[in-house]
Specification:
- There is one protein chain.
- This protein is mainly α.
- Helices cover about 75% and strands about 0% of the residues.
- The protein contains seven helices and two strands; from the N terminus they run αββαααααα.
- β1 and β2 form a beta hairpin.
- The protein is globular.
Amino acid sequence: MAFLDPSRTRPASLWRGIAVVLGGALLITIGAKVQIPFWPVPMTLHTLAVFFLAAALGPRLGFAAMATYLAVGALGLPVFSNAPERGIGLAYLVGPTGGYLAGYLLSTLIIGWLSRNRGWIGQALAMLAGLAVVYAVGLLWLTAFVPLPGLIAAGFTPFILGDLLKVALASGLNAAITRLKGRTQ
């Protein structure tokens, strides 16, 4: 009856959680590095990866994956978008995009919590709430680098169309995976 022993199942679930968090951080890194030609600025898949993981993994593991990504980047590994060209480590985190990265971290909690047991529309709305947090924290931080009159033009307008597209993709992908899982069980 060893399979009923709780002390034997805990290490397996711990290792599985660690693997999920590390895999999530890797997916966020890949998303940050992929650049797709888009108008008015090239688009990365960073938002897609973060929002998808937050909804798929929930607030605890989604937050842990994003925190791991930020910790690895803070240690100097070039995981961030446009790194190492635009800096690495803590220098990158305190730069103009640092607020957006902090906003992503907070958004994982909001998206993970709000998207629980929701369909495509509910997840999309949860992701829109998360996106609002990303922009609020990001734009607030960006005021240290960009004069107020140019803030929206520099930190919002070039990115919002791509981010809305990524919200639609992330929520649709997560809803489709949830539906497929339901069919196979």
